[in-house]
């Protein structure tokens, strides 16, 4: 573990890949590794990038990487892949259009399956972010598709979220009503070369205007891009820089990071406690007996469980 941590801190790409595999497979050594790296974390900016399939998220990231590399920044991308039950490993998925950087040492691209993680994909992604942060990546982007539960959890791991929309999908406004607007910090109308881009921008601005009618300072930027033509990327990065500056200065970023830590600690705790009880008290076996008692109406479900918890708490007052 120590040797691997040392190599990660030096930015060794193979060590990073290995660590992420440990995380994906939930290997027990992962915990020591993460704790060893943790003091070195906190320097990276974490961006979530989400939006409908094919909106141009990867193409945008590809162009952003190019600019960030010119600024001497190291960039990592984690693409959370909803379709595949297997990890893409270090191989670039078809979804990723960042091949132009495949041989660049300052760029690390990895896809992660959204299913099949013991602690959930959010925890796996969180740990992968820590590894990349400790390894010296300045920018870590997490790409997800759509706005399902996983995506919302995953974008919740980031300092800022780019919501990429495109004209012509027909259901944009409907999607916005369903609460999608809340998850974006910066809106990107990509494929501005297409009909309807201006209209979509106006619609988004209209919805944002209503949403923040009494707090105009909270109105979010809407930027138009044509990623595949390398247009609007500078404007987008300018909007991002301004946003990062704003949330760093007003304490929002620090609060957000602390809030994230809180939900992480809570999640690890809950998971550990339930694993401990499962193992120490042979929970699955007892569960069958409990089910039986409730089934036969000997107990109501609440009284049975409250009784068991009271018994348990009497034995242990460690919290
Ligand atoms: N016309 C036009 N096409 C674009 C633009 N940006 C990206 N595309 C094309 O849109 C397609 C999808 O782009 P991707 O970058 O793979 O989109 P994505 O959002 O990452 O897709 P998923 O990861 O599959 O959700 C590609 O064929 C791109 O070349 C644009 O600004 N204008
Ligand atoms: Mg993509």
Write a brief structural summary:
This protein has 319 residues and is α/β, with parallel strands linked by helices. The protein has 12 helices and 7 strands. Magnesium ion binds at residues 57-58, 95-96, 143.
Report the uncertain regions: 84-94
**Cα radius of gyration in angstroms:** 22 Å
N-to-C terminal Cα separation, in Å? 30 Å
Task: Determine the number of helices (DSSP H or I, runs of at least 4 residues).
Answer: 12
**What small molecules does the structure contain?**
guanosine-5'-triphosphate, magnesium ion
Would you count the extended β strands for me? 7
Helix and strand run: HHHEHEEHEHEHEHEHHHH
Give the helix level as a range of percent. Answer: 40-55%
Largest sheet: number of strands, sense, barrel closure: 7 strands, parallel
Q: Estimate the mean pLDDT confidence.
A: 87
Shape, principal axes of CA atoms = globular
């Amino acid at each position: 573990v120590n040797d691997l941590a040392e190599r990660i801190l030096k930015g060794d790409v193979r060590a990073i890949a290995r660590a992420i595999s440990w995380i994906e497979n939930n290997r027990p050594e992962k915990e020591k590794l993460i704790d060893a790296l943790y003091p070195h974390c906190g320097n990276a900016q974490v961006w979530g990038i989400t939006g409908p399939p094919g909106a141009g998220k990867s193409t945008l990231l590809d162009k952003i990487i190019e600019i960030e590399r010119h600024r001497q920044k190291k960039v990592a991308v984690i693409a959370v892949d909803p379709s595949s039950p297997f990890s893409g490993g270090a191989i670039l998925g078809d979804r990723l259009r960042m091949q132009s950087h495949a041989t660049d040492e300052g760029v690390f691209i990895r896809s992660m399956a959204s299913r099949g993680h013991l602690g959930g994909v959010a925890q796996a992604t969180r740990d992968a972010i820590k590894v990349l942060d400790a390894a010296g990546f300045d920018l870590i982007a997490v790409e997800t598709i759509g706005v399902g539960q996983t995506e919302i959890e995953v974008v919740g791991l980031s300092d800022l979220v780019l919501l990429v929309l495109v004209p012509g999908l027909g259901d944009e406004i409907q999607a916005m009503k369903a609460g999608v607007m809340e998850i974006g910090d910066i809106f990107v109308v990509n494929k501005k070369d297409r009909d309807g881009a201006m209209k979509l921008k106006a619609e988004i601005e209209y919805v944002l205007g209503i949403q923040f009618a009494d707090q105009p300072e909270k109105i979010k930027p809407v930027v138009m891009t044509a990623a595949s033509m390398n247009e609007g990327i500078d404007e987008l990065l300018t909007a991002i820089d301004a946003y990062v500056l704003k949330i760093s200065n007003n304490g929002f970023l620090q609060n957000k990071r602390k809030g994230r830590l809180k939900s992480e600690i809570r999640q690890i705790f809950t998971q550990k406690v339930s694993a401990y009880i499962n193992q120490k008290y042979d929970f699955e076996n007892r569960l069958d007996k409990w089910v039986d008692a409730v089934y036969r109406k000997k107990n109501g479900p609440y009284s049975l469980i409250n009784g068991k918890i009271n018994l348990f708490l009497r034995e242990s007052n460690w919290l």
